[in-house]
Amino acid sequence: MNLFLIIYGKILHKLNFLEITLFLSLCRIKYYYLFIESYYEVYMKILLTGATGYIGKRLLPILVENGHEVICIVRDKSRFSVPINSTLISVIEFDFLSDSINTDLIPKDIDVAYYLMHSMSASIENFINLESKTALNFRKLIETTHAKQIIYLSGIVNNDKLSKHLKSRKNVEDILAESSVALTTLRAGIIVGSGSASFEIIRDLVEKLPLMITPKWLHSKCQPIAIRDVISFLTSVIDRKDTFNKSFDIGGPEVLTYKEMLLQYAEVRKLKRLIITVPVMSPRISSYWLYFISSTTFKLALNLVDSLKIDVICNDNSLAELLNIKPISYKKAVEYAFDKIEQNSIVSSWKDALITSSDLSKVSQFINIPEFGCFIDAQSVKINSDPEIALERIWGIGGKNGWYYANFLWAI
Length: 412
Hints:
The protein is of the alpha/beta class. The protein has 15 helices and 13 strands. It has helices spanning 2-12, 17-26, 32-42, 54-65, 127-142, 164-177, 197-208, 227-236, 258-268, 283-293, 298-308, 319-322, 330-342, 387-395, 407-410; strands at 45-49, 69-74, 89-93, 112-115, 149-155, 182-188, 191-192, 211-215, 221-222, 225-226, 246-250, 256-257, 274-278. Strands 3-2-1-4-5-6-11 form a seven-stranded parallel β-sheet, with helices on both faces. A two-stranded parallel sheet has the order 7-10. Helix 4 (54-65) links the parallel strand 1 and strand 2.
């Protein structure tokens, strides 16, 4: 019966009440009242902020696939390339950092709104003020609609000593909680998936460095969660009244140190890596270390390092069981991430929200993956000598004959 409802629901979700009743009566469908009930409960008009970001771009096609009408809010339409062609998607240009907001730009018949905005990459010192202003303007906007629920993806804030980033996330939650619209907060730590900032930093470090001299915060603990599980939680709490005005920690099944995450990544990639931690790296030096080794920006690196110094572990809660979600392991999440990368099917990257040119909006499609921990640079040159003699000389490189440069390094 459930499958039956879904199939007909896809046909009927754009019709009004009378049209649905007439259609089902003509088709002599016995349980037509179930279809009507399903229509009004399942298909909703959803406001999606952060649509150009890593989470938003992955959430959008799932919402549309589930039959929801989605209104994407972006600061600049020219930077947003709609990932799928659907009549259920509309795009509105709106700046939540503006001193004056025009609430008339947003439809009033919104059912659910996602809050997926942050300013971590935009500023080092001022992002707390930026995020507060964004949240206040969003709250003012959403209260002019008929929305029943705000769904906010935040960070885990169970430690007494929070970083600036996590303090800001908690502050945003407090601002949204003061709204007349019910708030559902999902708090996540490290998100593992192709294109995520955390995954790309881990990937850069492990792929590039056989030996790592690292700061002591690599002993901090976290509870990483796969991006597919984050999306499952975000979509499963829609209109769940038992999640209204509540916050939930979401994480994977394992508690790991950042060092263990790097080493487990290396295991998945079949790489041998040695990690030595030292207590002398200041947060700024650690940030430069991430900046020069990985593809992250310095602003993001500095804000991330500030957060990595503390443990981010979930409190026990029953949300996964309530929603029938079974989060996958960290290693499995890494394997899935590489499946996506190798198939050139990266839906979104953490850099997408930073890209200012629409021509670069799909830059992640052109990423080449290093095999066995290194990139292969193939060059060719035409030679005029006997091929066998040339090949013999090539095989003679190294050993007693030596290398072209730094023989002592090849001996290590």
